[in-house]
Amino acid sequence: MGAPALLWPPLLLPLIIVLFGQPPGTSAQNQACSVTSEYFEIKENTNVSEPLANISVPNGQQVSLGSSSTPSAFKIAGDQLFLTAIPDYEENPLLEAVLECKTGESVVTVLRVFVVVQDVNDNAPEFPFTIKKHDVAEDTRVGSIVIPGTELEAKDADKDDTLIYTLQEVTPDASSFFSLVGQNNPALRLEKTLDFYKIQSMTLKLLARDTLEEDKNPSHTATATLVLNVLPADLRTPWFLPCSFSDGYSCIQAQYHGVVPIGYTLPSPLILSPGPIYAVDGDQGINQPIIYSIVAGNTDDTFIINADSGNLTMAKSIPRPMTFTLVVRADQVDMARYSITQAIVDARNATGTPLQFSRNRYHGTVVLGSKAGTEVKDRTSPSEILRIQAQYPGFPDLDSATTYQITNSSDFKMEEDVMLTTVAMEHVDTFYVEVEATNTVTMDTATTVVEIQVTEQEPPITGTQGEDQRFSTVDMAVLGGVLGALLLLALICLCILIHKHYRHRFNCCSGKVSKPPPPLSVYDNLAFFPDHKASWLSTSNPQPQPDPETARPPSGPQSPMSSSLTPPSSAPPSPELRAPGSPKTVQAGDSPLAVRSILTKERRPEGEGGYKAVWFGKDIREEADVVVLNEPAAGVDSASASGSEGSDEDSPNQSYI
């Protein structure tokens, strides 16, 4: 921004005369030095190479710069005055040249030339810090000034500049918590309630610009970083754990439950559900220590609570079944805040509840070569330690008073519920170790057997040891793909073989409706009848061609197997339907030769001429006679032989020769 309007030269010159006095020798003399101008205005940072003024010097006089001139700012060359320095408003806003005209050593005339330096915006503002860290208490009231403006102001060497301040967030949502009081006042103000557990620190950038308009030229901007650390305040009471948070300042307190046997004083802290009595300062950033106490419900002072740990123990036995509702208080060590919860303890009769192991027999394993002190692992889960535990169902507090010992072996020992070796395992072997559990409160005992196998190899790899597996997942995937391809290839080959050898059975079982046999002339068995002299050698009587009426197939649809499975009727054909000269029907008692042949259209394999034929007696249940017709006899009409073919299907009583 520019400097304010300077005083006009006519007004400034009298002021200079008042300040510095009337130059000597300036009386109305005809023979005196003079300059073309005694006042100049130049913007700072301007390099002036032309003469600043011309000096008129009378004959016999000399002109020089006086000692009171601004050092290193002017020079005289001939009868001209030059400005040799680049003016800087911030360094010297007014330059003065004192010209002395002399005759010999006597000063005749003194002239003063003034250069007023005009200010321009050539300096950027500067903050007194680069990064400023400041702590803000979590309970600071909204609207409060967090950092005063005097601590955040920037300085600008351009004295007349007015700085504009802005705030930019670095931490997301930080600008919703803090703002500046004004664009010319950088004081930082809190706009929203702080929460230590949501945001512990926020970073913002503070900018100072020396122009009102951001796009004005020239314009300069300074930047500094503000780091605001949120300090926790004592806003929350102690919280009993576990608890369900309802908001950031309170939680639903836990209630504790336990069961103790009557007639016994348990030496250890009670086992409570969902866990031991434990509270923490709700202001975790402050984390005041907690002090515990029982304020109500402790009938006959039966229970004692440890003030530091919160462990609840029994001071005496309970004579009868009853329920204790203990009111437990947790105070901060500074006693500023506290919370209260309940611990409900049921005293029950433990009679009839025996001490018992969780398994009838335990199975352990030890690697061959293990040294003494090695833990026995669980054979069913080799990566885990075998734990042998005896319990009172329903009384977990009694379980903590149970001790264990081995009664029949010196090769192993018990440490609490874990079994260790006492010697090196140098041989493959199987041990059967008896473990006895004794409850120190009830003095009950129970025994169990542990079968321990000493194996030569490490336990098998489990799912949690994937990095030690011999084959990777990629290897197994490739192997599966190869096996799948081989299986598919085998199935294709199997299908081809089945189709090649059993396709005729697939055809006969296709379920198609049987078609009427074609005319006898259709069957042209050239291989079976090489010439016209063929004759049947298996019978002495020629078989005449059946009557067209009797050879007609049934009109209704039949299954593919019906023609070959249906036996011929034993009743003789009626005279009106029998053709003259047709053979008689086979009756009971007739010769075995008096049978009827059934021929199929199926040829024998290549190289073996003939058809297969099945011969039935009167009773279809009788054993079938199979005759292979390798070469037909002469004298039998080929049409008659062809006419015997009537089925594509195999009969249950037919066979291939």
UniProtKB/TrEMBL annotation:
One of the GO biological process terms: cell morphogenesis
Membrane topology: Single-pass type I membrane protein
Transmembrane domains' residue ranges: 476-498
Basic and acidic residues bias locations: 599-609
CC per GO annotation: adherens junction; apical plasma membrane; catenin complex; microvillus membrane
Family matches, as InterPro entries: Cadherin, Cadherin-like_dom, Cadherin-like_sf, Cadherin_CS
Compositionally biased tracts (Low complexity): 558-568, 633-645
Domain (Cadherin) ranges: 136-240, 277-356
Assembly, per entry: Part of the IMAC/intermicrovillar adhesion complex/intermicrovillar tip-link complex composed of ANKS4B, MYO7B, USH1C, CDHR2 and CDHR5. Interacts (via cytoplasmic domain) with USH1C and MYO7B; required for proper localization of CDHR5 to microvilli tips and its function in brush border differentiation.
Summary of the function given for this chain in its UniProt record: Intermicrovillar adhesion molecule that forms, via its extracellular domain, calcium-dependent heterophilic complexes with CDHR2 on adjacent microvilli. Thereby, controls the packing of microvilli at the apical membrane of epithelial cells. Through its cytoplasmic domain, interacts with microvillus cytoplasmic proteins to form the intermicrovillar adhesion complex/IMAC. This complex plays a central role in microvilli and epithelial brush border differentiation.
Protein name listed in UniProt: Cadherin-related family member 5
